[in-house]
Specification:
alpha/beta; 2 domains; 4-stranded parallel sheet; 9 helices; elongated
């Protein structure tokens, strides 16, 4: 009798652990901008009348994979490309985006698999937001590839281009501090504007292939944390945003600070290399 009670207690703990693990995996689903991935979980069982354990497990995995693929497609659809458009919008508007995205989702990578005592299978898949191929950006920026590249605007104050306090600093990147202005919304194609509304940084100023591989900006918690250091280097130009525009997606800086950014970039080319960080 004691053995039975111990076994029952053990079984209860095991079931609890499995359920907890399942919840933990599900809690991590969705878009993880810090890691640059989208994650989805699939859960399914095999056919009830299947008597072969091996075939049952194979059926369960296949069904769980299809479930994960559907969940991943939903998560990808919700990714914001710009402040006013999502991946779903682009997919509906452009056939080539839809086709490329379908191929990308089918190439999702498996990161975990579990089989539970009740016969169900749980699989976890991920796909990259950015990357040369097999990424969301590879599909998202297809419509922009044929657009002509536009030069960065010139500073409003022409004298700043010769100011050694601006152009003599050898800046490695740009950090825009957006703290205290509300929650910034993550987008794949952000814009930096000056207070007069002039766009000083957008996808039209950049090599689209660079954007696809690296993205236009990283989102960090501090101007000097690991994410900032990796993206903007050890000597970034740090600028405080004055507000967030376009549904809190795009930082706005003062006209003077915009001039500093453009003048410094004219020499150091950090914008050209997408060495940009938004501190949230």
């Amino acid at each position: 009798m004691k053995i039975t009670k111990k076994f029952a207690a053990f079984a209860t703990l095991l079931i609890f652990a499995l359920v907890t693990a399942a919840v933990a995996f599900a809690a991590q689903d969705g878009v993880d901008w810090s890691r640059g991935v989208i994650r989805a979980t699939g859960l399914a069982a095999g056919k009830k009348d299947e008597t072969s354990p091996g075939l049952y497990r194979a059926q369960a995995k296949r069904a769980a994979t299809m479930d994960a693929m559907r969940n991943l497609a939903e998560a990808v659809d919700g990714v914001r490309v710009t402040s006013s458009s999502s991946m779903k919008d682009l997919r509906l508007q452009y056939d080539e985006v839809n086709t490329r995205l379908d191929t990308t989702i089918k190439g999702m990578r498996e990161v975990d698999i579990q089989y539970f005592e009740d016969g169900t299978c749980q699989v976890v898949f991920e796909m990259s937001i950015f990357g040369a191929s097999g990424s969301v950006s590879d599909a998202a920026f297809l419509p922009f590839k044929n657009e002509p590249k536009v030069d960065f605007p010139q500073p409003v104050d022409k004298k700043i281009a010769n100011d050694p306090n601006v152009v003599g600093k050898n800046y490695t990147g740009l950090v825009i501090d957006c703290r205290g202005l509300g929650t910034i919304n993550y987008v794949m194609s952000p814009v930096i504007k000056n207070a007069d509304g002039t766009k000083i940084y957008g996808h039209q100023n950049l090599d689209i292939d660079k954007i696809i591989i690296n993205g236009m900006a990283a989102y960090a918690s501090d101007a000097y944390d690991q994410i900032s250091a990796q993206r903007a280097g050890n000597n970034p130009l740090v600028i405080k945003a004055v507000r967030l525009d376009d549904l809190n997606s795009n930082p706005v800086v003062s006209v003077a600070d915009a001039d500093r950014i453009l003048a410094a970039n004219g020499k150091d080319k950090f914008l050209d290399n997408c060495a940009v960080v938004f501190v949230k």
